[in-house]
């Protein structure tokens, strides 16, 4: 059973339906990707999990029981639209958010100092937010999101606004927090980081869940039995009836890279045997799994 | 609602404001102004006298000159023999300040006309003095024209100057000499202060709601605390700022006025109106040897001063401060919750104009009714104004110095408290939804929709 379970969650604002019978199961200790085009209802779902918005119907379970206001102390939320008090100092501000999450001021100071040292920003403590650059403010905001050691982290586009170096820093921190046992919901349009970081995903489009499950499982499910073959030969590979078709073949001075469409149920050994029988020297043979990006585009455009 | 969260919010709202330079500045400067307002009139009494003016008089009528008696203000010199133009030509040589030309008596209207020339504009005091003296002269001349024996005596005999004092009767039937003017001034000051406080600090609440919304801090906040906790924490935090400022003002003003009084000796004067005259003399003597008798003249006659002081002494200051705190607290809460709801519905302050109209108008009406209250504290409009919750904080406070029956106070406070609870409920509903709404400009129709939303 997941740390967070949404069961048949519905939410509408007046006439406009934001979520319709949304059910997702977010496993504990994993990174869960929440995907979907703009306006699909991701933010509404996040707000419902955060108890910022109350659903019209359906239920959210936290650790197996209906979520309560007490549980929000165990959640850390980094909204897509970042915001800090401009006139307040970084330290005061971080203390304020930590205390609102139920930390005592002593614990808050200790934990914050540790994070500031880890991020190398100790000297910012007494600076006002308006003196910081956007990237700097993002770092501060990330710390305020995680300082109370939440068991559930909700990160909405956590890498936006960071340079590659800092984005890598954040990526490492996310993985470290996962190691330490945190469950993480990652909402992003960056499909590469989904493949890299997420264990499971849910794709939401037009207010309902289109697909949910493990990343590998989904990629395989949408795999179309294509394989990439690299071989060396004077000749070009010919298709074999009942085994495969050749979709493309690129000849680079006798070194060919070709994409094969395998007939369903065909075993790789038979394909290789047929290739070798044609006199080719096989350099590499691998299954082609679709990118998350392609699956995303396929599923979203199919609906329209 | 979690008290701990509200506590954290209140302390942030309070501390960030109290630490601001602008807060410190107003907190310490305003008492100086208040104190100056209390002290200045007495200081002015000592120093605000003009120097004596040299006034040349060309009296072509021959009846006025004798009425123009020299005094501190003016030294009248007879130039009736000269032509006005030649006096004008030698203005500087003769060291004159003013030239007054009185026309010959007009036989038809039996009157004269007066023209005054001076290089600098003529002071109002001197102008009035010359005019009234001339009037006296002309009246006297006309009376003499009737040629009735002993008319002067008869006139003096008829002349009347009734003495009028006002007393209030308290429940024990004891009479107290009062001065209605004092009540009026206190009522005016009270309603101004409470209006200012409510308008200023509720505006602060609205501004702060807008700031959190437009900077997007609010989304993080409501993921930690409930929207209602945030709203009430903010409202209470700002209220604490207001009360801190109010009490600091009272204390600092008291210290400043007290300090000045101790230095000059006015405090004993305030305590004992009977010996006011004596104290005045002492006060006068202590301030750089200014003639005390002169001051008595300016301070008008004894009994009127006594009435003012007796009124001041009889006002129940403690009760008034208590009433101020209660009505400010409730009025502020009522309006602050409404302004918080308006702030939540907009993204920047420029958009508030239309939405805040229905809230600012009652506040303004209340202020105007209270201006009427110190003329007619018991008129129906003032009575109803002090009962209707949206106007009562300001209007009732303007009635307080005149004395208000207990049942009216209790009823008005109860109505106000009840309305606050109702408005807070409505505002919280709007606020909860409003703070997360971006993009479209909010209309009253939207607000109504949000109210109905579950």
Give the SSE layout.
The complex is a heterodimer of chains A (304) and B (454).
Chain A: E1 4-13, E2 16-26, E3 31-35, H1 42-49, E4 57-62, E5 65-66, E6 75-78, H2 90-100, H3 105-118, H4 134-146, E7 152-156, H5 164-179, E8 183-187, H6 191-197, E9 200-205, E10 208-214, H7 215-221, E11 226-232, E12 244-252, E13 255-262, H8 268-277, E14 281-288, H9 292-303
Parallel strand pairs in A: 3-8, 3-9, 6-7, 7-8
Antiparallel strand pairs in A: 1-2, 1-4, 4-5, 9-10, 11-13, 11-14, 12-13
Chain B: H1 3-18, H2 21-47, E1 53-59, E2 74-78, H3 84-89, E3 98-102, E4 114-117, H4 124-146, H5 151-158, E5 166-169, E6 175-178, H6 180-214, H7 217-222, H8 227-264, H9 266-271, H10 276-286, H11 292-298, H12 302-314, H13 317-345, H14 352-373, H15 380-385, H16 392-399, H17 406-434, H18 444-452
Parallel strand pairs in B: 1-2, 1-3
Antiparallel strand pairs in B: 3-4, 5-6
Helix pairs in contact in B: 1-8, 2-8, 6-8, 6-13, 6-14, 6-16, 8-13, 10-11, 13-14, 13-16, 13-17, 14-16, 17-18
Brief digest:
The complex is a heterodimer of chains A (304) and B (454). Chain A has 304 residues and is α/β, with parallel strands linked by helices.
Task: Give an overview of the whole structure.
The complex is a heterodimer of chains A (304) and B (454). Chain A has nine helices and 14 strands. Chain A has helices at residues 42-49, 90-100, 105-118, 134-146, 164-179, 191-197, 215-221, 268-277, 292-303; strands spanning 4-13, 16-26, 31-35, 57-62, 65-66, 75-78, 152-156, 183-187, 200-205, 208-214, 226-232, 244-252, 255-262, 281-288. In chain A, the strands form three sheets. Chain A has a six-stranded mixed beta sheet with strand order 6-7-8-3-9-10, with helices on both faces. Chain A is elongated, with a radius of gyration of 24 Å. In chain A, 36% of the residues are buried. The mean pLDDT of chain A is 90. In chain B, α10 packs across α11 (292-298) and α13 runs antiparallel to α14. Chain B is elongated, with a radius of gyration of 31 Å. Chain B folds into two domains: 3-43 and 179-452, no CATH class; 53-158, Periplasmic binding protein-like II (D-Maltodextrin-Binding Protein, domain 2). In chain B, the strands form two sheets. Chain B has a four-stranded mixed beta sheet with strand order 2-1-3-4. Chain B has a two-stranded antiparallel sheet with strand order 5-6. The interface between A and B is medium-sized, with 32 and 26 residues.
């Amino acid at each position: 059973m997941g740390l967070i379970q949404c069961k048949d969650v519905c939410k509408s604002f007046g006439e406009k339906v934001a979520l319709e019978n949304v059910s997702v199961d977010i496993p504990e200790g994993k990174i869960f990707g929440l995907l979907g085009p703009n306006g699909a209802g991701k933010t509404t779902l996040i707000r419902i999990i955060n108890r910022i918005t109350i659903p019209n119907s359906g239920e959210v379970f936290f650790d197996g029981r209906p979520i309560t206001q007490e549980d929000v102390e165990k959640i850390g939320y980094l909204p897509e639209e970042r915001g800090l008090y401009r006139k307040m100092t970084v330290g005061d501000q971080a203390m304020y958010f930590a205390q609102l999450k139920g930390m005592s001021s002593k614990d808050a100071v200790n934990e914050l100092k540790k994070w500031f040292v880890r991020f190398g920003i100790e000297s910012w403590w007494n600076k006002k937010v308006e003196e910081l650059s956007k990237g700097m403010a993002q770092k501060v905001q990330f710390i305020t999101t995680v300082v109370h050691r939440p068991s559930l982290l909700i990160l909405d586009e956590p890498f936006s606004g960071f340079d590659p170096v800092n984005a890598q820093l954040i990526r490492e921190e996310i993985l470290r927090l996962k190691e330490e046992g945190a469950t993480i919901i990652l909402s992003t349009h960056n499909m590469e980081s989904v493949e890299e970081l997420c264990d499971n995903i849910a794709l939401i489009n037009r207010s309902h869940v289109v697909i949910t499950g493990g990343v590998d499982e989904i990629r395989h499910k949408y795999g179309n039995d294509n394989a990439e073959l690299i071989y060396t030969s004077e000749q070009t590979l010919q298709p074999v009836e009942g085994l495969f078709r050749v979709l493309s073949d690129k000849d680079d001075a006798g070194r060919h890279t070709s994409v094969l469409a395998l007939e369903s149920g065909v075993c790789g050994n038979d394909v290789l045997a047929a290739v070798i029988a044609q006199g080719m020297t096989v350099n590499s043979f691998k299954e082609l799994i679709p990118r998350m990006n392609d699956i995303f585009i396929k599923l979203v455009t199919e609906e329209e | 609602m979690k008290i701990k969260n509200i506590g954290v919010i209140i302390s942030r709202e309070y501390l960030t404001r109290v630490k601001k330079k602008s807060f410190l500045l107003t907190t310490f400067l305003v008492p100086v102004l208040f104190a100056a307002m209390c002290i200045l009139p007495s200081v002015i009494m000592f120093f605000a006298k003009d120097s004596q003016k040299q006034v040349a008089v060309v009296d072509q009528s021959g009846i006025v000159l004798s009425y123009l008696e020299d005094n501190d203000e003016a030294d009248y010199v007879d130039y009736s023999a000269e032509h006005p133009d030649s006096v004008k030509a030698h203005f500087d040589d003769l060291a004159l300040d003013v030239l007054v030309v009185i026309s010959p008596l007009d036989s038809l209207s039996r009157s004269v006309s007066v023209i005054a020339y001076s290089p600098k504009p003529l002071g109002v005091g001197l102008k009035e003095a010359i005019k009234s003296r001339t009037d006296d002269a002309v009246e006297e001349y006309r009376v003499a024209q009737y040629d009735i024996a002993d008319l002067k005596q008869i006139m003096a005999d008829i002349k009347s100057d009734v003495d009028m004092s006002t007393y209030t009767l308290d429940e024990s039937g004891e009479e107290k000499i009062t001065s209605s003017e004092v009540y009026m001034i206190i009522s005016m000051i009270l309603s101004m202060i409470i209006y200012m406080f409510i308008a200023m600090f509720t505006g602060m609440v609205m501004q702060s709601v807008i700031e959190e919304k437009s900077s997007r801090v609010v989304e993080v906040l409501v993921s930690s605390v409930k929207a209602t906790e945030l709203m009430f924490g903010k409202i209470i935090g700002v209220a604490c700022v207001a009360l801190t400022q109010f009490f600091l003002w009272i204390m600092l003003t008291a210290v400043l006025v007290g300090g000045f009084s101790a230095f000059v000796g006015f405090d004993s004067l305030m305590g004992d109106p009977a010996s006011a005259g004596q104290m005045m003399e002492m006060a006068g003597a202590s301030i750089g040897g200014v003639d005390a008798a002169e001051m008595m003249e300016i301070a008008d006659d004894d009994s009127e001063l006594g009435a003012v002081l007796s009124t001041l002494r009889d006002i129940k200051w403690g009760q008034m401060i208590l009433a101020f705190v209660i009505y400010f607290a409730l009025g502020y809460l009522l309006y602050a919750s409404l302004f918080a709801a308006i702030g939540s519905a907009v993204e920047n302050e420029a958009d508030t104009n239309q939405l805040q109209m229905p809230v600012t108008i009652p506040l303004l009406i209340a202020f105007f009714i209270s201006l009427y209250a110190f003329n007619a504290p018991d008129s129906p409009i003032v009575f109803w104004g002090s009962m209707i919750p949206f106007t009562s904080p300001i209007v009732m406070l303007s009635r307080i110095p005149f004395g208000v029956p207990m049942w009216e106070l209790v009823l008005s406070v109860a109505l106000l408290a009840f309305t606050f609870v109702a408005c807070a409920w409505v505002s919280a509903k709007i606020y909860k939804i409003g703070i997360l709404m971006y993009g479209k400009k909010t209309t009253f129709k939207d607000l109504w929709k949000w109210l109905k939303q579950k």
